[in-house]
Amino acid sequence: xxxxxxxxxxxxxxxxxxxxxxxxxxxxxxxxxxxxxxxxxxxxxxxxxxxxxxxxxxxxxxxxxxxxxxxxxxxxxxxxxxxxxxxxxxxxxxxxxxxxxxxxxxxxxxxxxxxxxxxxxxxxxxxxxxxxxxxxxxxxxxxxxxxxxxxxxxxxxxxxxxxxxxxxxxxxxxxxxxxxxxxxxxxxxxxxxxxxxxxxxxxxxxxxxxxxxxxxxxxxxxxxxxxxxxxxxxxxxxxxxxxxxxxxxxxxxxxxxxxxxxxxxxxxxxxxxxxxxxxxxxxxxxxxxxxxx
Length: 293
Hints:
Layout: H1 4-32, H2 41-52, H3 59-62, E1 67-70, E2 76-80, H4 82-122, H5 130-145, H6 148-159, H7 163-187, H8 191-199, H9 204-210, H10 216-234, H11 247-255, H12 259-287
Antiparallel strand pairs: 1-2
């Protein structure tokens, strides 16, 4: 155990090291000429903000049903129904949102099921042989270290374009996160539970299994909801690499500088995540509420 003075020294050491790291990074950015906001950043910001302030979904009510595009000589090139076109876009947005939610849900469930035994083995208080526990921890660390987009590129190459590649990418990255959080939840379990099982001749793992419904299951459900919520956000960009979902619409809007449509997409993502967060928070509160004995 560190003394109070030792803890203060360690804290200042960490803060000093962090400050030094930031100074080195800023210095290298300045030396490379990258510490710049580009040309006319304020004008570009104002223009982009003005377009963002007019989300395209407003065209559903206020759009021009006969918007004319004219050539320089005044000829009418084409006539567009903004309201009808926006209705089509919102329909495609709804389908993309549902696909994104499907990817996050199936990927999270697959990862949660695969990671459960690894979390048990990796927990230090389960007294599993180091020859088994250490490889399990290493495997979880490896999968957790690789970003979802990298896994997405791999699975798009293996499986092909489509939402299944997104499901596998979410599952692969989340596998490591689930395993780590499962192990930490087990390590945070009441030590008296393990001791009482040992007194009855049970191993730590047997004790945990017998007491699963009262001790670990609520915590694991909380972990699942937390990572599921994160994956809902993470899966929105998988379409950028062809793995389905909202990413394709985001890529199209950005490449065509359609900031109004991008604003609509981002508002939809915020609404989706906020709704999921509200529901998951209520579920976590309900399952973690102290039970009457």
